[in-house]
């Protein structure tokens, strides 16, 4: 196993969720899947998904489309030290960050994005890093016990690890939460669960 081929979001209404992700972000089941689940979950689910784009105008276009499709804006898009971005919560409860490292537009605005990043909020970044290295993932970037980014190939979902409370702060939500993550990671692997309860299944 060396990458996430796709992710599956567990939702109450699969038709509504699929429609939202198509209308808001132009996503299809090749990268983001949905399946029905009634597993209880409350508060922060311990992860966020990010769409990384090439310029601020694309962030604004995606945020507007998400809002029009029914998302709740948690953080309006704004400039920061690292670039420009905002945060929305999809109708199914998933938190999405829309971000770019650029501060100026250099091309016509579109809703195109460069990559999808899954950030897992974990209790012990170093321990989780070693767990995933043991599963065959290569490390792309690592900043001690604060942040890890794994190396992934094209057309896959990039995996990163962050401290749970720090990730919740970035997302603009309270870090408390319990129950199901409502998330499954799909790759070339046997089924397993990581130390923080995130489930992996074979990609189909």
From TrEMBL:
Residues 185-204 are annotated as: Disordered. Pfam families: Glyoxalase. Residues 4-98 form the Glyoxalase/fosfomycin resistance/dioxygenase domain. InterPro entries: Glyas_Bleomycin-R_OHBP_Dase, Glyas_Fos-R_dOase_dom. Coiled coil: none annotated. This is Glyoxalase. It comes from Streptomyces parvulus.
């Amino acid at each position: 196993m060396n990458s996430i081929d796709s992710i599956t979001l567990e939702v109450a209404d699969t038709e509504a969720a699929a429609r939202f992700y198509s209308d808001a972000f132009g996503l299809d089941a090749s990268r983001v899947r949905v399946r029905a689940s009634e597993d209880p979950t409350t508060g922060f689910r311990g992860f966020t998904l990010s769409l990384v784009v090439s310029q601020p105008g694309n962030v604004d276009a995606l945020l507007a489309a998400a809002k029009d499709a029914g998302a709740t804006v948690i953080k309006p898009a704004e400039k920061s030290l690292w670039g420009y971005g905002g945060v929305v919560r999809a109708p199914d409860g998933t938190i999405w960050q829309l971000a770019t490292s650029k501060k100026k537009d250099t091309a016509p605005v579109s809703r195109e994005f460069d990559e999808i990043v899954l950030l897992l909020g974990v209790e012990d970044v170093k321990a989780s890093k070693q767990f995933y290295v043991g599963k065959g993932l290569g490390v792309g970037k690592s900043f001690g016990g604060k942040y890890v980014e794994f190396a992934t190939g094209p057309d896959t979902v990039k995996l990163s690890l962050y401290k749970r409370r720090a990730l919740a702060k970035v997302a603009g939500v309270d870090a408390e939460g319990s129950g199901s993550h409502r998330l499954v990671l799909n790759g070339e692997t046997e089924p397993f669960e990581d130390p923080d309860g995130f489930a992996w299944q074979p990609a189909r």
